[in-house]
Each structure stands twice: as structure tokens, then as C-alpha cells.
Amino acid sequence: MSASSSPNVVDLLTLGAAVIGPIATAWVTIWSNGRSERERIDLHLDWNWVQEGADDHFPVLHVHNKSGSTILVSEIRFLRGFFWRKPVFGTAIDFEEPDEMPLPAPVESGKIRRFRLDKRDALKHYRMLNIRAKIAGLTRRHFLWIELRTSGQSVKRIGV
Fold first, then answer.
1. Which residues pair with 158 in a beta bridge?
2. CA-to-CA distance for 92 and 90, rounded, in angstroms?
């Protein structure tokens, strides 16, 4: 076999670039389009203080929709655990009658919506924490979480 018929390094690199280039371009295009259509949500947990008597403060979850379209919040609940978070029964939303339940709730693009959380459940779950969970809190590893789910199947968690 002569030296002119065997492929050299330059020919192999040219062939590799011709094959890999379009594949990489297609992957980057699909990835960037998927990220732009994704629901982007920020959560913030806060206590509101009002002068109404016995129930003068309560936890509030602020949901900030940073995506380009309206999202629909379908569920807000408590989770417990360090590594494997297990859902706690029920919802984290405060309501008195079942027909007063504010879910599913729309959050418009660029807006912030506030959800009043159940103070009794929050305090009950906090009191159930054992000493190991409280020590782990000093290392900024949370044991109690709040999870928000949207109708687009996005999930966002925040440590309590």
C-alpha cells in the first residue's frame, strides 16, 4: 500500500469536524430552546407581622415568576428529611374551608404572589425535629422543606 492512499491526521480531523459540528450545533440549539421555555421560579419564606390579636404573625411563601409566561401553582407542601425528603400529609396552605383553597393559583410573568402558610402545621413540624436535625441546621443542612409544584411539572424546594 502506498503512502498516498492512507488517510493522514489532517484528513481525519477534517472528517471528525464535519461529522461532529452539525451534531453539536443541533444539541446546543435544542438545549437553549428548552432552557428558555422552562418555568423559572424563585421562592422566599417570610413571617408577616400584623396587629390582630392572638394570631399576630404567620408564615408567608412568596413565589416570584421569572419566566416569560404565566405559571399555575398546583401544590405547596411540607417535606421532611436530610437526603431523602418525604412528603408530610396534607398541604402547607392555610385555609378554613375546603372551597377556600387557593390552589391551583396563577402567577403572572414577572409578578410575585404570596401564599399564607398554615402556622399550626409549621410549628408542629418544627417541634418534631430532634436534636440531630437542629444540630444539622447549624451546618446549614435543612431537615424541613417546603415544596412547590406547578402544572408544568416544575418542582422547587426551599429549606425552612
1. 146
2. 7
* CB contact burial 117-136 (16+ within 10 A = b; e otherwise): bbeebbeebeeeeeeebeee
* Residue length of the chain: 160
Q: What CA–CA distance (Å, rounded) separates 39 from 37?
A: 7
Q: Report how far apart, in Å, the C-alpha atoms of 126 and of each of 66, 68, 106, 111 are.
A: 30, 36, 29, 30
- Region 93-109 average pLDDT: 73
CA dihedral 95→99→104→108, nearest 10 degrees, is -80
Q: How confident is the model at residue 1 (pLDDT cuts 50, 70, 90)?
A: very low
pLDDT tens digits for range 49-96 = 666 666 667 788 888 888 888 888 888 888 877 777 777 777 767 766
Contact 115, 100 (CB under 8 A): no
Per DSSP, the three-state class of 153 is: coil
DSSP conformational letter for 99: G
What is the C-alpha to C-alpha distance for residues 117 and 61, in angstroms, rounded to an integer?
7
Return d(Cα 131, Cα 137) in angstroms, integer.
10
